[in-house]
């Protein structure tokens, strides 16, 4: 457990600060969306259809980022769209990590029949294109945020399991693991006190990457209509604006830019976090 006690080298860790700042901002926006949004995200105004952003000619200061084809305020819809994105990102990535890491450790440490069974299940899931599997699942269960979260879990746990399994297989042959087993330390204690701290850095990197993938999956499934129709989502905004790309490109540009910024920030955050918790990178 010594590696868990290392102090985070926060000074000079610009990636961690940048990514953490954007993630914190996302959480605050999701919480404060009802107070930050200038309008109701579902309120329609046919007199204000496809208004450009306020700094463009013909823009309205009451609609800072413009409006969509139904006259709904784009800024308000983006702010409220952080709520389903945050829910899918955190819940989907956390559940994927929990399932994948647990199965990966079992398969890598115990080997034999346990490894064979888990590996066959892993191969079955990885044989299907991830997004196709998510779409089929969403079509079977029906639309809704819970469906999107389950789709993220179904396609995300395999990455954790495959990587952690390989890491554990390499670790269990190390001298300190063999010494722990030789003195009679129980398997659960070996896993918790010796193996888990050493796979923590790669787990945190995978978790950060999975959060970024979860945002993209949520946007894709929302785009094709498998998210809740009563909730403003970034993918739903893109779907609504694709028919008006020639006359109102800002409806598409705004949510796409937000998604890109979020994914890049999460990647930076997980890179910085790995540097903070990995003693090898610290040296």
Ordered list of secondary-structure elements with their pairings:
Elements: H1 14-36, H2 74-110, H3 112-126, H4 130-141, H5 145-171, H6 175-182, H7 187-223, H8 234-241, H9 250-277, H10 279-282
Helix pairs in contact: 1-2, 1-9, 2-3, 2-5, 2-7, 3-5, 4-5, 5-7, 6-7, 7-8, 7-9, 8-9
Structure description:
The chain is an all-alpha fold and 283 residues long. It has a single domain (28-45, 61-277), classed as MetI-like fold, CATH 1.10.3720. Residues 1-8 have low confidence and may be disordered. The chain contains ten helices and no strands.
Average pLDDT over all residues: 85
CATH class: Mainly Alpha
Number of domains: 1
Listing every helix as H and every strand as E from the N terminus to the C terminus, the arrangement reads: HHHHHHHHHH
Percentage of residues assigned to helices: over 70%
Gyration radius, rounded: 22 Å
Question: Distance between termini?
Answer: 18 Å
The 3D shape can be described as elongated
Membrane topology: Multi-pass membrane protein
Pfam family, one: BPD_transp_1
Family: Belongs to the binding-protein-dependent transport system permease family.
Protein name: Peptide/nickel transport system permease protein
Labels describing this entry:
MetI-like fold; mainly alpha; single chain; 283 residues; 10 helices
């Amino acid at each position: 457990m010594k590696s868990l006690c290392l102090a985070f080298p926060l000074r000079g860790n610009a990636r961690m600060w940048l990514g953490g700042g954007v993630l914190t901002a996302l959480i605050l926006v999701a919480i404060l969306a009802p107070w930050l949004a200038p309008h109701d995200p579902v309120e329609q105004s046919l007199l204000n259809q496809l208004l450009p952003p306020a700094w463009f000619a013909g823009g309205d200061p009451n609609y800072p980022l413009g409006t969509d084809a139904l006259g709904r305020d784009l800024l308000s819809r983006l702010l409220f769209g952080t709520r389903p994105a945050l829910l899918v990102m955190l819940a989907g990535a956390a559940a994927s990590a929990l399932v994948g890491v647990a199965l990966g450790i079992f398969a890598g440490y115990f080997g034999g029949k346990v490894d064979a069974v888990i590996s066959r299940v892993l191969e079955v899931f990885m044989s299907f294109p991830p997004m196709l599997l998510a779409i089929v699942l969403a079509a079977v269960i029906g639309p809704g945020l819970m469906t999107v979260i389950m789709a993220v879990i179904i396609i995300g746990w395999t990455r954790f399991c495959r990587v952690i399994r390989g890491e554990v297989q390499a670790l269990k042959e190390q001298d300190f693991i063999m010494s722990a087993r030789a003195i009679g330390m129980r398997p659960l204690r070996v896993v918790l006190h010796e193996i888990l701290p050493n796979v923590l850095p790669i787990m945190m990197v995978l978790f950060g990457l999975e959060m970024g993938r979860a945002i993209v999956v949520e946007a894709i499934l929302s785009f094709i209509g498998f998210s809740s129709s009563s909730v403003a989502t970034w993918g739903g905004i893109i779907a609504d604006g694709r028919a008006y790309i020639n006359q109102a490109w800002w409806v598409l540009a705004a949510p796409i830019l937000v998604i890109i910024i979020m994914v890049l920030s999460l990647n930076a955050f997980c890179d910085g976090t790995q540097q903070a918790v990995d003693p090898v990178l610290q040296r």
